[in-house]
Structure formats: C-alpha cells, structure tokens
Amino acid sequence: MLANLFLHYAFDKWLTREFPTVEFERYADDAVVHCATETQARQVLDAIARRMAQVGLELHPDKTRIVYCKQDGRPGSHEHERFNFLGYTFRPRLAKNRFGRFFVGFLPAISDDAAKAKRQEIRNWKLHRRSDKTLKDLAREVNPIVQGWINYYGRFYKSMLAPLLRRIDEYLVRWAMRKYKRLRRRRTRAWGWLASVAGREPNLFAHWRMGVRPTGWAVGAG
After folding, report:
1. What is the pTM (predicted TM-score) of this model?
2. Which of 185, 171, 90, 102 is nearest to 130 (CA)?
3. Residue 215 has what pLDDT?
C-alpha cells in the first residue's frame, strides 16, 4: 500500500501535471502510457526515466519499451508491436465490427503466461484422481474459480480462453474413465459420455455455461 501511495505522487500526479494530454493506466509498479506519435513516446519515456531517478527508482530495462499499436489504418511497423499488462497480451488481432465486417484491431486477450499458470492450476486440481467425488461435487469445487477466470479474461477476445477451459474437460474424461468400469481404457466412449452429460446439463460447469462444451471428440491431457 505504501509503495502504491508513493507512486501515486511520484508517477501519477507528476505525469498528469507534466503531460496533461497523455493518458495512462497504472497497477502497482506496472504502467501503460498512451502517446500519439513515436516522437512523443520517446520524449515521455526519457522524462519518466529522469523522474524515476529523481525519486530513487529506475525503469526495468527489459520490460520498458515503446510499442507500436498496429491496426487497420496504421500501416507502419516497429520492433515491438505487442505488450503484456495485467495478464493480457495486447497485439494486432482479427476482429469483427457491428456490421459484420472483419478488421485488424489492437486488442487484448489472455496472455501466454497467464494461460500457462491456469493450466498448471488445473493440473494441480488432479480431477482425474478424485473418483470418490461425483461430477456435481467437482463442479461445485471448480466453478467459483473458473467463473472468476471467465469474468476477468473473458471480457476481451473470449475465444482465446476456450483452449484453456477445454483442458478441464480433458481431466473430466480421465476422471470418468477411472470412476466407471464401462469407460475404462475407452477414451472415445468417455468423451461421448461427457458430451451427453453436457447436453443434458449444460449449466453444470461454468465453462459449459459459457459455451465451451465437450463434443465427443477425443484429445489428450498432459
């Protein structure tokens, strides 16, 4: 809290005073500053570096960079055309406007690092080993966590979240193969069984409610 309060005056108030037309976002010690041109970006970056030195801080040499927000209408290019912020990766992505036309926008989606961390969390649940539980028991345990992911990472470019959420079904299939004798060593049949459950109870799991449901096709889980 003290660090955040310090940066409020050392960075936020200072930047607002020195560059009143420049917008920015900051969370803890991570910040994104929006500039209209590369020249302005370099001026602001140099000024921020000097300001940090004045208050006994320095910019991270690897994480601090000027990024070109490339999208339709911006044909140029730059060494850096993406950045990560708060678990999202911002980069050029294909999107569809309200008229149904496709365009390239500079848009956020769950970052690779965030997705990797969530995949590890799913592995740590060890759902496939919990054959003493019912499917509803598992849903009650994981739904609050998964719904939190959906609420946060699903706000932008939701389709990039789907591969992560499908990992849950891969472990549920393995769970079913351990729990039910008729499904042991029958992965394809287990996928069909899980797909039929999702068809009957589409609201059982949070990611099923989102529309990410098993189809009956077999895929492997690590």
Report:
1. 0.84
2. 171
3. 82
